[in-house]
Design goal:
7 helices, six-stranded mixed β-sheet, alpha+beta, 424 residues, seven-stranded mixed β-sheet
Length: 424
C-alpha cells in the first residue's frame, strides 16, 4: 500500500501553496485537531485529479488490481487464468458548509476569531463529515473479531490477522469505552508521542496498533429475541446485485425486533481473503449496513451488506475455506442451505475499527469553481477550508460561508477489521 501521511510539527502548516489566509487556516486547524480518523493512516490517492471539481456526487474510482494464478509447473496449464480483471471502489465528493453573519466574522483579532469562529466552525464542519464517513465505513471490514463480556483479546486477534496479510502500520479507532474495558482488566495501552494538536483521543499502542478514541463509533446492540431466533439459522441466498444476504432463521423471534446496522453475520465455510485474493483462516464478516425489522411471523431475514466480490481471483474479498471461488447459485452453487449462519450473542458491544496504513482514502478540495477574488482559504494537514462572503442585496446584509469538500472512505476492506467487545 502507498505511504500514508506523517504527522507534522505542532504548528499551523505553511508548506501548502494554497494557504492564503491565516484566520481561515485557524478554522482548518481546529477541524484538523478533531479529525485523526481522517488524517492518520490515510492516503490521498486522487490529488492530481481533483482540481476545480466541487460537484456534489462527483465520483472517483480506486482500482483493486487482479492477479493470475500461481502454478507449480514449468508449463502454463490448460485453462489457467492469464487475463486480469480489475475491480473499482467508487467514492464520491461530499460537500459541507456553515454560514455566519459577516459582522460576526470580520474585524476580529486573531484571538477573537479563533474563540468566536474557528473553535466553533472548524470542529462542527469536520464532525458532520466524520459522522457520515464512519457510518459508511463501519461495514467495510472483511473480518470481525468478537469478545464476550470482559474480554479484550479480540483487539490482539484483529491486529495479528492484519499483520499477517500486510506489513503496513496499523491504526485503531474506537469507542472510548474500549479503553475503559481494557484497563479495568489490568492491561494498558503503551503511551506514544505525538504533537499536541494530534493528541486528542490518542490512547496509545496496544498489541501492534496505535489507538485513538473517536466519537461517532456506533455501539452494536443485539436483542435476545433475535439472538435466540438465530440458533440453528441457515444460509438461504445471496443476491450479488443488491448485496443482500438472506438467512433462514432457526425459529421465529419471540417478539418483534430490529437487526441493527453493524451486526456481523458469519456463513460456515466462507473465509476472508488477503490483499492478493488468497484465502485466510478467518471467517468473512457479512456486516449489516442498515437496520432491519423482524416480525414474530418472519421465518427469514434479508440483511443488506457491503459489496462482496468473490468471482475474480486477485480482487475477491471472500472464498471458501479451501480457496475455491464462491458460487452463490446455479448448478455449481457451493454455498447452500446446508451452511450454518451465526451472529454474536445478545448484548451491547463497544466497537473498534482497525485498519492498515493506506487502506483509507481522505482528501479535501484545494480549489473550487465558485472562488472569487475575495475568497479565502486555509489548509492544515490535508484539510482545506474555503471562506466566501455572500451578499444579499434584497435584505442588504452579508453572510460569510465556510465550505469543506471531502473525499473519504475505505478503499481496501480486506485490510480493515471490526472488533466488537461486549459490555458487562
Amino acid at each position: 500500500m502507498a505511504q500514508a501521511r506523517t504527522i507534522p510539527a505542532p504548528a499551523i502548516s505553511s508548506a501548502n501553496q494554497f494557504e492564503t489566509n491565516y484566520q481561515t487556516e485557524l478554522v482548518a486547524l481546529r477541524g484538523a485537531q478533531i479529525a485523526p480518523y481522517f488524517t492518520v493512516g490515510s492516503k490521498a490517492y486522487f490529488g492530481d485529479q481533483l482540481f476545480g471539481k466541487n460537484r456534489n456526487g462527483q465520483v472517483y474510482g480506486f482500482v483493486i488490481q487482479d492477479r493470475t494464478e500461481v502454478e507449480n509447473s514449468l508449463a502454463i496449464g490448460a485453462g489457467a487464468k492469464t487475463n486480469l480483471v480489475e475491480r473499482v471502489v467508487n467514492l464520491a465528493i461530499e460537500p459541507w458548509h456553515m454560514s455566519e453573519k459577516t459582522n460576526v466574522v470580520e474585524g476580529k483579532t486573531d484571538d477573537e476569531f479563533d474563540k468566536r469562529v474557528a473553535e466553533k466552525i472548524g470542529p462542527a464542519l469536520l464532525q458532520g463529515a466524520l459522522k457520515k464517513s464512519i457510518k459508511n465505513d463501519f461495514a467495510k471490514s472483511a473480518t470481525c473479531f468478537i469478545g464476550k463480556a470482559g474480554e479484550f483479546e479480540p483487539l490482539s486477534m484483529a491486529t495479528a490477522h492484519l499483520s499477517s496479510i500486510t506489513s503496513e502500520p496499523l491504526y485503531g479507532f474506537c469507542d472510548s469505552m474500549v479503553e475503559a474495558l481494557v484497563t479495568s482488566r489490568g492491561a494498558q495501552f503503551v503511551p506514544v508521542s505525538a504533537p499536541a494538536m494530534y493528541k486528542q483521543g490518542l490512547i496509545g499502542h496496544f498489541h501492534g496498533a496505535d489507538y485513538r478514541s473517536v466519537r461517532f463509533i456506533p455501539r452494536v446492540k443485539i436483542s435476545t429475541a433475535f439472538a435466540n431466533a438465530m440458533s440453528g439459522a441457515k444460509f438461504a441466498s445471496f443476491n450479488s446485485t443488491t448485496n443482500t444476504l438472506t438467512i433462514t432463521l432457526g425459529a421465529s423471534p419471540a417478539s418483534a425486533t430490529v437487526v441493527k446496522a453493524g451486526t456481523p453475520f458469519f456463513v460456515s465455510d466462507i473465509v476472508a481473503c488477503d490483499t492478493v485474493g488468497d484465502a485466510t483462516t478467518e471467517p468473512y464478516a457479512f456486516i449489516a449496513t442498515e437496520d432491519v425489522s423482524v416480525a414474530t411471523t418472519d421465518s427469514t431475514v434479508a440483511i443488506k451488506v457491503d459489496e462482496v466480490p468473490v468471482s475474480v481471483l486477485g480482487t475477491r474479498v471472500a472464498s471458501l475455506e479451501d480457496g475455491s471461488i464462491i458460487e452463490w447459485s446455479g448448478a455449481n452453487a457451493n454455498v447452500t442451505s446446508a451452511n450454518d449462519v451465526t451472529c454474536p450473542e445478545a448484548g451491547t458491544y463497544f466497537a473498534a475499527l482497525i485498519r492498515a496504513n493506506g487502506s483509507f482514502e481522505f482528501e479535501t478540495l484545494d480549489t473550487i469553481d465558485v472562488a472569487t477574488p475575495e475568497s479565502k482559504k486555509g489548509s492544515v494537514e490535508g484539510i482545506t477550508i474555503h471562506q466566501n462572503r455572500l451578499i444579499d442585496m434584497g435584505q442588504f446584509v452579508n453572510d460569510t460561508r465556510f465550505d469543506l469538500f471531502t473525499l473519504s472512505g475505505v478503499v481496501e476492506k480486506r485490510a480493515q477489521s471490526l472488533v466488537l467487545l461486549k459490555a458487562k
